[in-house]
Amino acid sequence: MVLDRYQLLGVSLISFGGVFAPYSYIVLLSVPLTALGLACIILGSTLLMVPGSPVPGHQVRAMMEASLVNVEALLEEFDVRGKAVYMPPNDGRVHAFIPVQGNVDLGAVDPQRVPVRVLTEAGGVRGVTVFPPGSEAVRLSLLPEEAGPEDALSHVLVDFIEAAESVKLVRRGSEAVVELGRPRASSEYPRVNVCLGSYPVSVAGCVLAHVLRGAVAYRGEESSGSSILAYFEVAPTG
Fold first, then answer.
1. What digits encode the pLDDT tens for the residues 18-63?
2. Helices 133-140 & 199-212, crossing angle to 10 degrees?
3. pTM of full prediction above 0.85
């Protein structure tokens, strides 16, 4: 039997949750982290029941938005208030380092030296590691390897999860400004919004880190109702 990409995601989430939940309960003694593992199992089981025919983008978006409640619980548990640095793919998945307080100097961060664990350190700053839903969105979108940053943003945000009607990217030195036209997605989780950006902005951060193969720091966003301007700092490469 050949599994489609949603069923593969379901198996991945169940496998992760099946290990993470008992570890959190027995070793870390953390109820929120245990709940995070159980939620992954539930979400994975739901995905396994998704029909093999293509699922509309808005349904994928809804499921991924719902998974943000687990990220919110993790950030609340450790009282995290800093802004995320999206790290380039590790085993095919983008992850995010979030300082407990303030921001981290992007120039001091070496993605290869940052341990991927819940409590970790980057650039001499303590923080946590999370795998945002946008990480899976990038992986499941079958993003073409040759896609440039703006094409990649459009492919994932507009075509795959239908989180916005249009995407524009402006690069000014180390700054990257992403404009999302008529966004259809949002997140009602205050810690997620402060630390990772609203849901479509967080997905954009994952896409940029994936395509640029470097660390990308979230610096803030502005919303006018009909569009969102998201600001990122891109680490130099080479």
1. 888 888 888 878 888 888 888 888 887 877 776 554 545 566 666 6
2. 60
3. no
CA neighbor of 200 nearest in space, from 165, 173, 175: 165
Burial 50-67 (b: 16+ CB within 10 A, else e): beeeeeebeebbebbbeb
Encode the chain in three state secondary structure: CCCCHHHHHHHHHHHHHHHHHHHHHHHHCCHHHHHHHHHHHHHHHHHHCCCCCCCCHHHHHHHHHHCHHHHHHHHHHCCCCCCCEEEEEECCEEEEEEECCCCCCHHHCCHHHCCCCCEEEECCEEEEEECCHHHHHHHHCCCCCCCCHHHHHHHHHHHHCCCCCEEEEEEECCEEEEEEECCCCCCCCHHHHHHCCCHHHHHHHHHHHHHHCCCEEEEEEEECCCEEEEEEEECCCC
Q: Which residue's structure tokens are 């396994």?
A: 48
pLDDT tens column, 139-167: 888 888 888 999 999 999 998 888 899 99
Question: How buried is 92 (Cβ within 10 angstroms: 0-12 exposed, 13-18 middle, 19+ buried)?
Answer: exposed
